[in-house]
Design brief:
Low-confidence stretches: none
Largest sheet: 8 strands, mixed
Number of domains: 1
Shape: globular
Helix content: 40-55%
CATH topology: Aminopeptidase
Mean pLDDT: 90
Strand content: 25-35%
CATH architecture: 3-Layer(aba) Sandwich
Number of strands: 8
Structural class: alpha+beta
Number of helices: 6
CATH class: Alpha Beta
């Protein structure tokens, strides 16, 4: 059984050190080689951040940060270890309630996901996000899929 709790810096650091390969590749393509800094920045800059645990071991961190570009928008994000796929059904059910809290903060949620990160794309579709056509994004200009959702879609 999984538990979802408010995130801690220790849990964020653990997940940064144990990221699944698709999330590691996505962070490197978007932000560069310092994965730990990217994860910790996401943790520190977000208003709401949660960690999912199985057997008291963190396996996913997700949250929402205020957009620098749009004051009424939030940037939603999720990262995980390989355990996220082993616990995906329980995680999906648990994360949906926390997602509803995110939409209360911002009338519009968005971000980008790497074109190869199929697990993230499935989670986003399950939450009702619209995924657009891939476009170059990030430090390396690789293809990412922009996605968004308005809070009246919940």
């Amino acid at each position: 059984m999984i538990e979802i709790q408010e995130a801690t810096a220790g849990a964020a650091a653990y997940i940064a050190q144990n990221l699944r390969e698709s999330d590691r590749e996505e962070l490197i393509a978007a932000y560069g080689d310092d994965i730990a800094m990217a994860v910790m920045d996401s943790y520190r800059l977000s208003q709401n951040v949660w960690v999912a645990y199985v057997d008291n071991v963190p396996f996913s961190i997700f949250g929402v940060a205020q957009s620098y570009d749009y004051p009424d928008a939030g940037v939603i994000w999720l990262l995980g270890t390989d355990e996220i796929l082993k616990n995906q059904m329980s995680f999906l059910r648990g994360s949906k309630e926390h997602f509803k809290q995110m939409v209360k903060l911002y009338p519009f949620l968005y971000n980008f996901t790497h074109v190869n990160n199929k697990a993230a794309q499935r989670w986003l579709r399950w939450l009702g996000f619209t995924l657009e056509d891939p476009e170059p994004y990030g430090l390396k200009g690789e293809l990412f899929i922009p996605f968004y959702r308005r809070n009246n879609d919940v």
